[in-house]
Write a structure and sequence with these properties.
Layout: E1 2-5, H1 13-20, H2 24-36, E2 41-47, H3 53-67, E3 72-76, H4 79-88, E4 97-101, H5 108-116, E5 121-124, H6 135-151, E6 159-162, H7 172-185, E7 194-198, H8 211-224, E8 229-232, H9 234-247
Parallel strand pairs: 1-2, 1-8, 2-3, 3-4, 4-5, 5-6, 6-7, 7-8
Length: 260
């Protein structure tokens, strides 16, 4: 499973201050910690970045890749900033990930950029009417997204369908609907469609001591249904992922499997 380290987000005070001060040290420290914890890709979330977004994304991406030999997931709603990140990204360690597009016509530009740079893209299954009610509605939206991606020349293997994990504290029934959607998404294409979730969305608003517990157990269920990728804190779920891979037969068991 593709593990995308989530900790470099503008939402974090430490990260936001480092970006504002152009201080590379905290950014590179967090990137390196996630790499050592097993991340295969590092999220670079700069938000809307309406002011000076291009320069900001360029600095952020190059700062991360100076520290770790990993590709970067580019998270912004600013298409100019997105393209700036795609331009400077060092593809030696893998392709960047465009995060994200949806059925909002303003987000179709992200499909255009994904096609132009041959980059994978996250497709959020959110419609014009708001958040999906159940797995079936997510599938309907996913089919429309796949059709739209094909129009822009994005191959199916470059799409990660995101069923939108919601807060369990306010939308408990949606946790099961996301599990169902993960399974159904894979039946929409041959080979199966790839899937991704923002795992920590599940536990937003929950007490701090419950968050890792909720995240780990939900990840186990998602992986059992065939989840391809997750935006997570790798330190929080590293042992869970290795254990699930052993139990499901994806990794050969050894007494030392946690250290491998």
């Amino acid at each position: 499973m593709l593990i995308i380290g989530e900790r470099l987000s503008i939402i974090s005070k430490k990260v936001r201050e480092a970006i504002q001060n152009k201080d590379k040290a905290p950014i590179q420290q967090i990137a390196a910690e996630q790499w050592r914890a097993g991340a295969h890709m590092i999220e670079a979330n700069i938000g809307p970045a309406e002011e000076d977004g291009e320069a900001l994304m360029e600095w952020f991406v190059t700062t991360i890749q100076e520290a770790v030999p990993l590709p970067v997931s580019l998270d912004t709603t600013n298409p100019k900033a997105m393209e700036a990140g795609l331009r400077v990204h060092n593809n030696q360690w893998g392709k960047p990930l465009v995060n994200s597009t949806s059925l909002d016509p303003e987000r179709f530009i992200m499909l255009e950029l994904a096609a132009k740079y041959d980059a994978p893209v996250i497709a959020l299954t959110v419609g014009k009417g708001g958040l999906p009610r159940d797995a079936e509605e997510r599938v309907e939206i996913a089919l429309k997204l796949m059709e739209k991606a094909a129009e822009y020349g994005v191959p199916m293997e470059n799409i990660y369908l995101d069923p939108l994990v919601m807060q369990i504290s306010g939308s408990q029934n949606q946790a099961k609907e996301v599990l169902r959607a993960i399974k159904l998404f894979q039946e929409l294409n041959d080979p199966p469609m790839k899937t991704v979730v923002g795992l920590s969305n599940l536990s937003n608003g929950c007490p701090r001591h419950l968050r890792p517990l909720l995240n780990r157990y939900y990840l186990a269920l998602l992986m059992y249904e065939g989840l391809s990728a997750a935006i997570v804190n790798p330190e929080e779920v590293r042992e869970a992922i290795k254990t699930i891979d052993v139990i499901t037969g994806k990794t050969l068991y050894a007494h030392s499997y946690l250290e491998i």
